[in-house]
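Good morning C.,

I know you're traveling, so I'll keep this short. The sequence:
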Amino acid sequence: MATFEQLFPTFLQKCAELHELLRIVAFMLFIVGTILLVVHGFSAKTLMLHMVRMFVLTALLVMLPQWGNQSQQLLQTSILDGLGVDPSQVHEQYNQLLVIKRDTGNDRSWWDIIGDLNAFTVEILITGILWLVGQFASLLLFWAYIIQKFILFTAYALSPLLIGFMAIRPLRSVGSRYLMHIMGVLIWPLGWAVAALITQGILDFMTDPSSRFFDPTASFYSLQATVGVAVVAFWIVFSTISAPVVIQKVLSYGSLAGGQLISGAFGSFFQTAATTAGAAAVASSTGLPLATVGAAGMAAVLSTLSTAAGHGSAGAIIIAGSGLPPRAARGRPGDDITGDRSVRDLIAKTKGHYY
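The tokens, ready to paste straight into the viewer:
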């Protein structure tokens, strides 16, 4: 695929021009910070610390975009490529685990051969499904890097103003938080690496052959692998989107990355299941099976993507756009839809108790 620099050359040029313009503002803020230091009195120690701070801020002012790009490239190559946890290659990881855990002994009965045929068929199907999931994850990862680049380059463009704030004592914390947020965006690959470790654990569960010792037909093993592929497919899509948000919380608030990812996955799963069921129920009223399946699938995808990003369930728009009235409105004509009558009755019952 094309790189960000090839896709958006004009955008990069404009960001660089804005960065150069704001450098003048940053140097003016440096002068203001020095004047405030002199006006409020200073010692040799405070003057030396101020000069060191000005040197560091000047280096950040000039080199921050270059240092950020190098750090991003280093994190990508050392974590995702170095650990071999690219989600687009999940089917290859699955096949490698199968080769490692497959029994290669010579004393095999005909029950083992039947179990191998069933397991082999399931493994072939799961490999194909994981290949499709990996391609979708690769597309998500590509756009995640595009979004990361957009955030970083706009942050670099405005960074001279916030770096200038760090030269003035009352505004120093604003600039520090700004740099921390940039650092949080830079370490997005670390979040994907943590999510990939959990993916590896799910793949270990899927390829565990221990159930085949007491079930020679491999029926339980097939069920285990089927459940595993559903979980890993949902997890890869969810974690590819949510991992950047989680890793920024880790840097900002000291949260636990694994706990945040797993709790978010459970919440997203239940929200997706509820939204999918609701969309299927709405579409089933049309009497068209394809419409029911399509609405349920679209609601599941939208809900997973939106909840993974920390927003509400976008799949609910399918239910909301069905044109059906609220559930309470489809009841009897005398139903209390707004709840006003219930509130009035409750007030009437309890009013005399306070006099």
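Safe travels,
E.
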